[in-house]
Specification:
single chain, Rossmann fold, 6 helices
């Protein structure tokens, strides 16, 4: 499966820890991330990550394009709900596109862990039908 990763600055360490904890599961999948998040995931976990541009430079839009073309199966978007509203349009785009294209998205650690466990069990294999 193709998995997208986005994390606000205040959540980047949490994303690193998530990927370290579940690297054995994630290593069997193709990972995409915004630039800084992808670099931090790679450095912390040793996972191979395809890096888009940095979020503020269009990385979220690049991931949105992959979502629109049905090239992403799951999104982990660890966001800070108190982050400045300047990020709101990009956040809304990702959330809306995932809803439109029936792509599971986790915006917090609890949901992220549930999706990773579902991925491990094969519960998300129905996404293959969308390809």
């Amino acid at each position: 499966m193709n998995i997208g990763f986005i994390a606000h600055d205040t959540k980047k360490m949490l994303m690193q820890n998530l990927c370290i904890a579940y690297c054995d599961i994630l290593r069997d999948h193709t990972l995409y991330a915004t630039q800084t998040t992808g670099r931090l995931i790679s450095e912390a976990s040793g996972l191979s990550v395809h890096k888009c541009l940095a979020g503020p430079l269009g990385g979220e839009q690049q991931l949105c394009s992959l979502i629109e073309h049905n090239e992403i199966d799951i999104v982990f978007y660890l966001r800070d709900p108190q982050e400045h509203t300047r990020l709101l349009p990009d956040m809304q785009s990702v959330l809306t596109l995932c809803d439109m294209h029936n792509i599971p998205i986790a915006t917090n650690l609890a949901t992220a862990e549930l999706l990773i466990k579902a991925l491990e069990r094969g519960d998300l294999n129905w996404r293959e039908l969308y390809h």
